[in-house]
Amino acid sequence: MIDIRTKIEQIPQHPGVYLMKNREGTILYVGKAKNLRNRVRSYFRQSGDGRYRIKFLIPAVHDIDVIITDTEKEALILENTLIKEHRPRYNVYFRDDKDYVHLRLDRREPWPRLTVVRRPQPDGALYFGPYASSQAVRETLRSIYKLFPIRSCSDTVFRNRTRPCLYYQINRCVGPCIEGLTTPEEYRELLDQVILLLRGNSTELLKRLKAQMHEASEALRFEEAGRIYRRIQAIERTVERQKVMSVHLRDQDVFGYYQEGGDLVIQRLVIREGKLLGGDAESFRLPATFLTSGVHAELEVLPEILGSYLNQYYAQATSLPQEVLLPCPIEEQDALEALLTERRGHKVSLLVPQRGEKHQLVLMANKNARLAFQKSREKKDSVEGVLEGLQQKLRLKHLPRRIECFDISNIMGTQAVGSMVTFQDGRPDKTRYRRFKVKTVRGADDYAMMAEVLGRRYRRALEEDDLPDLIMVDGGKGQLNIALSVLWELGIEEPDLISIAKSRVQGNRKGKVVERSEERIFLPQRKNPVTFPSHSPLLHLLQQIRDEAHRFAISYHKQLRRQDIFRSPLDEIPGIGEKRKQQLLRHFGSLKRIQEASLEALEEVEGITRPLAEAIYTFFHKE
Questions:
Q1: CA 350 to CA 344: how far, in whole Å?
Q2: What is the rounded CA–CA span in Å between residue 518 and residue 358?
Q3: Residue 26: helix, strand or coil by DSSP?
Q4: Span 137-152, pLDDT tens digits
Q5: Which domains does the chain have, with CATH numbers?
Q6: Phi (first) and psi of residue 529, to 5 degrees
Q7: For all residues of the chain together, what is the average pLDDT?
Q8: What SS3 state is found at 295?
Q9: What kind and span of H or E run contains 215?
Q10: How much is the pLDDT for 483?
Q11: CA 281 to chain centre
């Protein structure tokens, strides 16, 4: 500790970020400060920092590194980056960037379309979001496509169309894929309207549309005026459903929270031009180091938790409001306010209202956070009951909180793949999904393929001590016995094991269908399968897991088949990746012309060096 104190006195009194490390060099905590020396020194005073978890942190600290920045705003950005990269144990880390989704629109393209992306890039395109889930962004897209007839097809479909699709026939698309159906100017105007809607500027949008409607009517273009009128009506119906929250027509983000024990819900309400557009709630489980004894002890760290959440959330946000209303002051509030103001180009105020209209909005956000918590708790209790029911009905040794399910997909032994999906507490955990390309089996031998996939998975699981509560395979008694033999060979006894066989169509002697059999669950050491009523929630969960494993296997199998179909001789040339392959095809127009090209012609292609040109030429002129 003497060495640490000596080092503290050498820390400069500048803004920056400090990193506390343990004896192994692992980063335990990342923090920011206006004055690095004073802030770090405060942790080691006799009175201490005051936060509960810091008393566990300080004894583990063996070294401290600092990174100096020019301003407090830069320190805020750097802190967020380092927390995302290292995920220190004593910091609050809410969500990975990939958990958020955005809408992207690149107006530099000839006929732009909206696409869904995980991370905004500094590529000159417009981004809208973040949206808390893919479901939320899909609902937004559905609304846009109903209101504005812009293209929704992929670039591949768009380039290869020779006649308008069904969406054009039902007036859901203006048909930019076919020359002469619309003009770039008309399409750009539609995109401008979409942008106004996505930014919540419905007043300006309606004003512009009404002007266009009157202009079309005066020019006797009554059909066009009618289309615009119907669009105005649809937008006005949407706006009418948006509750007016303020007469001041401000853009506001309102945050509230609800906390019970170690569970925390943060609620955001989105208000644009004084109207409530919607909101989203995010649930988190606080780390044990944040929890103290006592009824209200957890609330002492709310300023830090909310500050970390806002810092991480607004690092992804592409649309910033005039005001951010908060339930309590947050750490480094002035620095975050300055950073958001700089990014928006206009003043952004972070306020903690104590009375009046704005205070009521925060109370409303708190109420919504509580409702979201109750809804989540009810769902969790329901899932808990299903898992307990499965344990009892199937006589499992463990409550099946984590279930891994396997399936095999192939066509007559070709492009054989296996899939593993993981469900945690009744919900898909896609971070634990795995897919396997079958390597050792030749021919259509599903049993051998299942044995290979299970062996590969659980040899690694043994090394990493990463076994589930329940292993599930798609199939009947045969697949179950294969799984049993693999686990026995590996010496694995802990997880429970079942197989699920699809229902079968039963018929009479004339071949007429009578009924479908029940889904059958096979267990080790039991001759006859277990069955459930068709309406049983226990069966529905098992079916959902089995169907997800099947979907995941099929999608990977189809992906490999597509790659095989579209495989080009160019793929076999070292140094030619997808980008250079496309450059060659664009330059020459076809594979045949590439094969016939001279060495000098190949060198003219952008990105093709002399050695690459020689490799391509030699590949096609081996003889």
A1: 13
A2: 57
A3: coil
A4: 888 888 888 888 999 8
A5: 2-91 (3.40.1440.10), 99-240 (no CATH), 252-374 (3.30.420), 402-563 (3.30.420.340), 569-620 (1.10.150.20)
A6: -75, 160
A7: 83
A8: coil
A9: helix 202-218
A10: 92
A11: 15
